[in-house]
Backbone:
């Protein structure tokens, strides 16, 4: 049996049943019959976990129509593209001592659970990005973070450094398919830190080269308003935090702050290991979003409380009919 048949045969109860129900509803939502468009949000280290292997195919298949991600996920997709073979896998990562961590640090690695990213790739891309940042800052251009990544993908000189097939990159798929990518909180990333460092040392003249979150919210609002008259829009959230909270708030902003009559998100699914707690947004049940003008009462809602590195590829496989 293929993956979809396996899920339908064995995923019958609890989180397994919820996963299958969410996958079926996702597929129906974006079908030619319902013509829905889907926003996918990425928190956590999904790109370092190589989610691009399945997410890129979802984008190319027309099953994903917009992405909101942390800046770490944006940059780490490109890091993986050009330095995959230089990564170090630590199989016994749970048993690492503080001394082991120091050794990894001194070898030039930054650890993400079992995967160590070489600092050399960060410096490699820094050298290519600084001239772009400088030009944007001098022109007060305030470009979206993803635009710089798209420019890197247009750099023919960078192609020789690819260490995985380009089709494994979800950023490349987004570029090819022309879907928008929103990246709130750019400063909370390696490249965001590097950008700030270059402003401090004067090699980049100011902070005006990167679009702030408020400008990205405006761009998101424009996308939502242009899309919703012809397509119901759904929301597939991986993890929590700013990657999810930023884009879902575009609807209450349009309704409550701009007094516009627009539809709410028409589908919602979140994969998260966070649990419901007092004040904990990432683990909040979907119905809480009703009071915030984010979800309709009748919108399909799913909460898969499990590991996204396992669950997201399975959902995507079912939607793709694998």
Residues:
């Amino acid at each position: 049996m293929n993956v979809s048949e396996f899920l339908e045969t064995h995923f019958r109860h609890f989180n397994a049943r919820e996963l299958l129900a969410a996958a079926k509803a996702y597929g129906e939502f974006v079908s030619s019959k319902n013509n829905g468009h889907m926003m996918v949000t990425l928190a956590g280290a999904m790109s370092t976990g190589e989610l691009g292997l399945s997410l890129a195919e979802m984008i190319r298949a027309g099953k994903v129509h917009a992405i909101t991600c942390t800046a770490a996920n944006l940059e780490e997709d490109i890091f993986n593209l050009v330095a995959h073979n230089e990564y170090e896998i630590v199989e016994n990562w749970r048993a690492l001592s503080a001394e082991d961590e120091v050794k990894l640090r001194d070898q030039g690695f930054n650890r993400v659970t079992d995967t160590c990213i070489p600092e050399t790739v960060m410096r490699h891309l820094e050298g290519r990005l600084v001239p772009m940042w400088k030009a944007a800052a001098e022109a007060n251009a305030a470009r979206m973070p993803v635009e710089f990544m798209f420019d890197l993908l247009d750099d023919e000189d960078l192609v020789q450094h690819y260490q995985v097939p380009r089709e494994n990159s979800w950023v490349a798929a987004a570029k090819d398919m022309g879907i928008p990518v929103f990246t709130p909180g750019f400063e909370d990333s390696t490249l965001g830190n590097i950008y700030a460092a270059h402003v401090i040392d004067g090699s980049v003249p100011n902070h005006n080269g990167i679009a702030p979150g408020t400008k990205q919210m405006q761009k998101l609002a424009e996308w939502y308003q242009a899309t919703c008259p012809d397509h119901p829009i759904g929301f597939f959230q991986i993890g929590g935090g700013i990657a999810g909270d930023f884009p879902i708030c575009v609807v209450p902003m349009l309704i409550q702050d701009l007094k516009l009559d627009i539809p709410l998100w028409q589908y919602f699914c979140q994969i998260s290991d966070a649990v419901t707690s007092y004040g904990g947004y990432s683990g909040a049940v979907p119905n809480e979003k009703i009071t915030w003008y984010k979800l309709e009462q009748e919108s399909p809602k799913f909460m898969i409380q499990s590991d996204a590195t396992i669950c997201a590829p399975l959902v995507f496989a079912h939607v793709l009919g694998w």
Summary: The chain has 14 helices and nine strands. The chain has a mean pLDDT of 97.
